[in-house]
Amino acid sequence: MKLWFPLMILLLAAGCAGAPVREGTVVPAPGETVVELKAESYSFTPSNLTVPAGKPLVLKIRNEATVIPHSFVLETADGTVLVRQSLIKGGETLIRIAPLPAGSYPFYCAESFLGSTHRGKGMEGKLEAQEK
Q1: What residues have CB less than 8 Å from 62, skipping those under 6 apart?
Q2: Is 54 left (phi over 0), alpha (psi -120 to 50) or beta?
Q3: C-alpha dihedral over 39, 104, 85, 18, to 10 degrees?
Q4: How far apart are CA 108 and CA 120, in angstroms?
Q5: N or C: which end of the chain has fewer CB within 10 A?
Q6: Cβ pair 97, 59 in contact under 8 A
Q7: Chain centroid to CA 88: how far?
Q8: 125 vs 22, more confident
Q9: Domain locations in the chain as residue ranges
Q10: Which pLDDT band, with edges at 50, 70 and 90, does 132 fall under?
Q11: Region label for 115, one of left (φ > 0), alpha (ψ between -120 and 50) or beta (otherwise)
């Protein structure tokens, strides 16, 4: 009886806790550009994105993988990392990106397994910010 009482209290307290909330949840603002991207086994679809330069945008990335971890990294042409975000397995991750100057920005998955990178297997692409 003495051992079960603390366990029952712990279970009761855990059951009273609310549903987990992901901190920093992104909600697109009205009029904000939303660009969809799909992360698959070892590729992004589409691998080339075109967005308006100088305007904030939200990337909505659907990760088709439920077991293999993936991430999204966006860099400048000189290799400066602008965004580094793990992707939700089997779900959607929304990433807000500050307005980008016109130019080309490589993106890729930074995950690896046994010395083989996902980027090396072709999980990369290019985001083009263009003046309208």
Answers
A1: 36, 37, 38, 39, 91, 92
A2: left
A3: -80
A4: 9
A5: N
A6: yes
A7: 7
A8: 125
A9: 23-130
A10: confident
A11: left
Sign of CA dihedral 66, 69, 75, 81: positive
pTM of the predicted model as reported, rounded to 2 decimal places: 0.78
CATH class of 23-130: mainly beta
Q: At 80, list the tokens.
A: 């400066």
At 23, the amino acid letter reads E
d(CA 20, CA 22): 7
Phi and psi dihedrals of 4, rounded to 5? -75, -30
Residue whose entry in the numeric block shows the structure tokens 């602008």? 82
Q: Which two tokens stand for residue 61?
A: 């990335």
